Amino acid sequence: MMATATQPRPEAQPALLAASQLHTYYGDSHILQGVSLEVGRGETVSLMGRNGMGKTTTLRSILGLTPPRSGRTWVAGVETTGWRPYRVVQKGIAYVPEDRGIFPNLSVRENLVMAARPGVDGRNAWPLERTLEHFPRLAERIGHMGNQLSGGEQQMLTIARALMTNPELLILDEATEGLAPLFRREIWRVIGEIRDTGIASIIVDKDVGALLGLCDRHYILNKGRVVWEGESEALRRDPDLYRQHLGV
Ligand SMILES: Nc1ncnc2c1ncn2[C@@H]1O[C@H](COP(=O)(O)OP(=O)(O)O)[C@@H](O)[C@H]1O
Ligand SMILES: [Mg+2]
Fold first, then answer.
1. Among 25, 29, 206, 227, which is best to mutate for testing ligand 1, by the most ligand atoms less than 8 A from CB?
2. Pseudo-torsion of CA 79, 80, 82, 86, nearest 10°?
3. Residues with CB under 5 A from ligand 2 (ion)
4. Is the pTM higher than 0.85?
5. Is 2 strand, coil or helix?
6. Residues 12 and 19 sit within 8 Å (Cβ to Cβ)
7. What residues does ligand 1 touch, defined as CB less than 6 Å away?
8. Each residue's pLDDT expressed in tens, for the chain with a length of 248 residues
9. CB-based contacts of 131: which residues, under 8 Å, 6+ apart?
10. What CATH number does domain 1-92+212-248 carry, 3.40.50.300, 3.40.462.10, 3.30.465.10, 2.40.10.10?
């Protein structure tokens, strides 16, 4: 069969993001063993699984940061297989990696303003003022340097910065990892607000309860394979899945 530039899909509207049969290696280690997933426009999806199961590698493969050895990816129906990361994210993706990477010697305002760019449709739906409405703590600390922020504030800054890129899809790896409970709640609140604005998300986190409440659908990874996918209701009804794959 000839490879085509358009994602094969029966519906008229292609998925916002699709990955098919990703196989990714670190050296000789075959990490992703045929991962496929899809995210619709405005959909909130989780990627679950114990440590080391391939969640981060899946995200990095989709973004081209760790290019898969085989498999294909699409953003909004356009094939992005083999694209460099900067081109993939220009299709409207904002990525918040596990290590947050804010600029320590720039102020909160500078960190935010530096990130600003119009969305793929040319619109600027997230000017500074609107972004700050969702992050009252950052608004209070607008003149503080990045390195004066707590871990929770830094994570808020990375999410706020991601919004300033006017994304169609926000990817959050370990959204609340290492944060105090108060900040965790803040982050979940903000993620809910972002979802309600219609931005799609892929969220990785250990807090299965929060993910169940927040996400439309879930993928569970085990040793580089998707072993389950489905909606929150179905996952709630299946405690064996928890025990087997999530260890909670
Ligand atoms: N840079 C790397 N080099 C070699 N192996 C890696 C590297 N990054 C991750 N791995 C391995 O790949 C597997 C999947 O890791 P990762 O995708 O980070 O899992 P998760 O995000 O689910 O915790 C693990 O076995 C991990 O040890
Ligand atoms: Mg990870």
1. 29
2. 160
3. 55-56
4. yes
5. coil
6. no
7. 26, 29, 31, 49, 51-57
8. 444 555 555 557 899 999 999 999 999 999 999 999 999 999 999 999 999 999 999 999 999 999 999 999 999 999 999 999 999 999 999 999 998 789 999 999 999 999 999 999 898 999 999 999 999 999 999 999 999 999 999 999 999 999 999 999 999 999 999 999 999 999 999 999 999 999 999 999 999 999 999 999 999 999 999 999 999 999 999 988 888 888 76
9. 112, 160, 163, 164
10. 3.40.50.300
* Residue type present at position 153: E
**Where exactly are the structural domains of the chain?**
1-92+212-248
Fill in the amino acid letter for 225.
Answer: R
Length of the chain: 248
